[in-house]
Specification:
The chain has 144 residues and is an alpha+beta fold. The chain is built from three helices and six strands. The protein has a six-stranded antiparallel beta sheet, sandwiched between helices.
């Protein structure tokens, strides 16, 4: 029996392929576990999408719908907010808990710094391989 050439492609790769096909800037950030609750890591706040109240722009919703329509089912979605230190949350004691996220957000921070964009929030899909892929980012219009 011949192997389907797509059978070996991971959901991460298929997701990145969709981004390429539609010319969307999907960015593979790295691997990290799915956070169960909002996490503060350095200057960032990682919030499971189900617990986030930010309004999602139409453009972003279209991307999400396209991903599902193309047969990709992310394991989870998270929204990342820039959270300057004046919003200091209680300090998490177990530092090792944060290590996978620190590496990931280092990439994200570098990527944002290189684009010099002021963006908040950022929507990230977490694939079944636990790869975090940035799907979209926008400037929150909510009066803050």
């Amino acid at each position: 029996a011949r192997m389907n050439p797509n059978a070996l492609a991971t959901q991460t790769q298929l997701l990145l392929d969709i981004g390429e096909r539609f010319q969307w800037d999907f960015v593979r950030l790295g691997r990290a576990p799915v956070p169960a609750q909002p996490l503060r890591v350095g200057e960032w706040l990682i919030v499971p999408a189900s617990q986030d109240s930010s309004p999602i722009p139409k453009q972003t919703m279209r991307r999400i719908q396209t991903i599902y329509r193309e047969g990709i089912c992310p394991l989870s979605w998270v929204v990342v907010h820039e959270a300057p230190s004046q919003l200091r949350a209680p300090v998490e004691t177990r530092r090792s808990h944060f290590l996978p996220y620190l590496a990931l957000l280092g990439v994200l921070g570098f990527w944002l710094a290189s684009t010099l964009a002021i963006v908040d929030p950022i929507l990230i899909a977490i694939t079944p391989e636990l790869e975090w892929v940035e799907i979209d980012r926008w400037v929150d219009q909510g009066g803050g």
